[in-house]
Amino acid sequence: MWRSRFLDQHAHLICVGAGFRKKMPHEETLAMYICECCILSQRRIGMVGASVTAVARLKKDYSKLLKDPVPYVLAAPLHSNILEWHYVIRGAPSTPYEGGVYHGKLVFPPDFPFKPPAIYMLTPSGRFQTNTRLCLSISDFHPDTWNPAWTVSTIITGLLSFMNETAPTLGSLTSTDSEKRALAKKSREFNLKDRVFCDLFEDLANEIRTELAEERSRDAAEDAAIQEMNSSRRSGEEGDYSPLTYNIVVLAGVVIIAFAVRYVILAAQEEN
């Protein structure tokens, strides 16, 4: 559900510039008209600085992501800058990241796709350092191995795959699975403190708030049930111990009396 709402929320971005409709100018001013439309379109969503090729390619990649999303991943450009994308990775089942929500960003160069983007992880995961450029074959650390045919989908798929591995790289961390699971539990609340995360992935942020509220209510109910159970157990144990103590005292008294009687009998026999 969070994915479908996200797609509805951001689908309008692929139509940027569609509202610039003018009467076709004379042939001699055609080049100026095209340039003007490009600048207006870029300014409308903060794309000044990006090449026309980069803008067209990123819009195409975004359209592809909406139609064919990558499992466990959301990604979208900032409304103010198409060269800066933010992504969210949901921890896959049967991994130390299960239940975690990991926010990061991709910073594309103005001449993308001819050069690769910088890749950052912003949420503590135990796998990557935060706010640090990651050295991956799909990042700006390796322009020599970059393939311009690689799309945003290719990049985030490669990042997700590398995250689930243990190979070291510049910007990676070494941690135990238990440490990763602990960070996964904290990741949702961590992301809710990030304004960009909450603005760009608003529906997901609201879903996380609902999840956390339900979990707190459930935990409170479970704690109350455990306390009630412990209280009942203590009451039962106290009730069990009272007769037992009484029986021990009675038995001790009987033994003492028996020894006293035996002593009297033995003493009488000695006198006789």
Automatic annotation (TrEMBL):
Key word Membrane present: yes
GO molecular function: ATP binding; ubiquitin conjugating enzyme activity
GO CC list: endoplasmic reticulum membrane
Region (Disordered): 216-239
GO BP field: protein modification by small protein conjugation
Subcellular location: Endoplasmic reticulum membrane
UniProt superkingdom: Eukaryota
EC number: 2.3.2.23
Task performed by this protein: Catalyzes the covalent attachment of ubiquitin to other proteins. Seems to function in the selective degradation of misfolded membrane proteins from the endoplasmic reticulum (ERAD). In cooperation with the GATOR2 complex, catalyzes 'Lys-6'-linked ubiquitination of NPRL2.
Protein name, entry field: Ubiquitin-conjugating enzyme E2 J2
The species this protein was found in: Ascaris suum (Pig roundworm)
